[in-house]
Design goal:
By secondary structure, this protein is an alpha+beta fold. The chain has six helices and nine strands; from the N terminus they run αααααβββββββββα. Strands 1, 2, 3, 4, 5, 6, 7, 8 and 9 form a nine-stranded antiparallel beta sheet that branches. Helix 3 runs antiparallel to helix 5 and helix 4 packs antiparallel against helix 5. The longest helix has 171 residues. The protein is rod-shaped and about 215 Å long. The two termini are 31 Å apart. The chain binds zinc ion. The site of zinc ion has 6 residues, from loops. This is Murein DD-endopeptidase MepM/ murein hydrolase activator NlpD. It comes from Naumannella halotolerans. Keywords: Hydrolase. Pfam families: Peptidase_M23.
Length: 509
């Protein structure tokens, strides 16, 4: 029988298997003593990671208090570096914002210049068209002037021709009058001839006059056309002048925009240079900070190593002392046992004799009529937690708690059996497991000390240890578990109700 109690497994199965020594302890959180403290190194790693993030996004990493002076200094350096980096990040941010501003203004100015240049191009086109129209108008004017001159000349000619006809007619009329005076006889034929001639003459004159009038009308029309062409040319000249002044205005606007752009380009270049300088500076600071973090990390590691060494030394000292105490206690117990045995033998002898007298058929080897005894003497305890109870435990309470006891109250074997294991450590602290004759087992946890070694045969009622508060507890008490045949003692969720088991064995708790 060399089975080891799978304590580590049992512990990991129910990290919250904490016992309440007193009823009011149910309000006490268990994690105060059973959760291992988070490694400082782990915290430091997290801090370094946060700092690394801070390097890029400008956050401040949380500060950690540290009992070590060196670690404190390292911490301070780290905080300073972080704060510097913070400032630096702010500077960079404002430089970047100035650059973005300049760039946006530059974009605006450039699009404004584009607009003005477009307008100017339109104006230039309009100017060209205007110049063409002006040239056309002037040509038209020249043509109109030439037409006027030609018509005037024609009028002169017609006038002259008409004058000649009139003069000729006049002379001919005079000669006819003279002829009539000479002939003094007016014949019908003569008269007819004369009338015919007169009509012819009149018609010729009329034609000349008509031609003259027509020429004059043409002249008027030509003059009118000339005036119109002049007005048109004038209008074109005016339009061209307006367009020109508009163009001059646009040109000066474009010039202003261009100089604004030059200024903005200069501003942008300044902002860019500032950003670059800032980035350069940040790189240096980041490198500096990384070096400081590294240094801080090393110091903390040194400190932790020192602490671990110290703790190891203390642990060894404690162990040596415990061994010594144990040896002394065992020796004392041995003596006590001898005395007790002697006393019991005497008592048994007396009882035997007494029983022999009263009932000779009764089994003399039993000290009680029941198969089992209460692991704590009746009257010395109160039950603070029963099997199956839920509360602070990971799933449910796997035993029966005898509380109201002081450290050092004797714990008794509930039934005859053999010590299966006598172990220290884990959630159960110092504990003893007994294997009984029919394959059942009982477990006694949280002892201040054990007084039964592995393999030892015990009778019900034998003292196997003393109450204490070792393992996960809030106060001194006995946590008592029962395992039926086939169950693995210590595999807590295979435990059954110990109270029922005791009752079956004649003990009412
Ligand atoms: Zn318990």
């Amino acid at each position: 029988m060399d089975r080891q109690l799978p304590l580590a497994a049992a512990k990991s199965q129910r990290p919250g298997n904490t016992e309440s020594g007193k009823a009011q302890d149910s309000a006490t959180p268990w994690y105060g003593f059973c959760v291992p403290p988070v490694s400082r190194r782990l915290v430091r790693r997290a801090a370094t990671a946060v700092a690394a993030v801070a390097l890029t996004i400008g956050l401040t990493a949380p500060a950690f208090a540290d009992p070590s002076d060196d670690a404190d200094k390292a911490e301070k350096k780290l905080t300073e570096a972080e704060s510097q980096l913070d400032d630096s990040s702010n500077d960079l941010e404002s430089a970047r914002s100035a650059l973005a501003d300049a760039e946006s203004q530059l974009d605006d100015a450039r699009s404004e210049l584009n607009r003005i240049q477009g307008e100017l191009a339109d104006a230039q086109e309009r100017d060209e068209e205007s110049q063409e129209r002006l040239a056309e108008a002037q040509e038209k004017l020249e043509q109109a002037k030439a037409a006027v001159a030609a018509n005037q000349k024609r009028v002169e000619e017609q006038r002259e021709k008409a004058g000649e006809v009139v003069r000729e007619q006049y002379q001919k009329q005079n000669s006819l009058v003279g002829l009539a005076m000479v002939v003094d006889n007016t014949t019908a034929g003569t008269l007819q001839t004369r009338a015919q001639w007169s009509t012819t003459m009149f018609n010729a004159t009329q034609a000349k006059l008509d031609a003259l009038e027509e020429a004059q009308q043409k002249l008027e029309a030509a003059k009118k056309a000339q005036a119109e062409a002049e007005a048109e040319a004038e209008a074109e000249r005016e339009a061209a002048a307006t367009n020109l002044s508009n163009m001059q205005e646009l040109e000066s606007e474009a010039q202003a925009e261009e100089s604004r752009i030059s200024a903005l380009v200069a501003a942008k270049s300044d902002a860019q240079a500032e950003v670059e300088t800032q980035v350069e500076a940040d790189k240096d600071r980041v490198a500096e900070m990384a070096a400081e973090s590294e240094e801080a990390q090393e110091k903390l590691e040194e400190y932790e190593a020192e602490q671990a060494k110290k703790a190891e030394k203390e642990r060894k000292e404690r162990e040596a002392k415990a061994k010594k105490d144990k040896e002394a206690a065992e020796k004392k117990k041995e003596e006590e046992k001898k005395a007790e045995k002697k006393k019991e033998e005497e008592k048994k002898k007396a009882e035997k004799e007494k029983k022999k007298k009263s009932d000779s058929s009764r089994d003399a080897t039993k000290t009680s009529s029941a198969a089992a005894v209460s692991p704590i003497k009746p009257g010395n305890y109160r039950i603070s937690a029963v099997f199956g109870q839920t509360g602070l435990w990971a799933r449910y309470h796997t035993g029966l708690d005898f509380a109201g006891v002081y450290t050092g109250t004797p714990i008794r074997a509930a039934k005859d059996g053999v010590v299966l294991s006598s172990t220290a450590g884990g959630w159960a602290g110092n504990h003893v497991i007994l294997r009984h004759s029919n394959g059942e087992s009982t477990l006694y946890a949280h002892m201040s000390r054990k007084s039964a070694s592995k393999g030892k045969v015990v009778k019900k009622g034998d003292i196997i240890g003393y109450t204490g508060a070792t393992g996960n507890v809030t106060g001194p008490h006995l946590h008592f578990e029962y395992y039926p045949k086939g169950a693995t003692p210590g595999s807590v969720y295979s435990a059954k109700d110990p109270r029922a088991w005791l009752k079956k064995n004649g003990v009412n708790i």
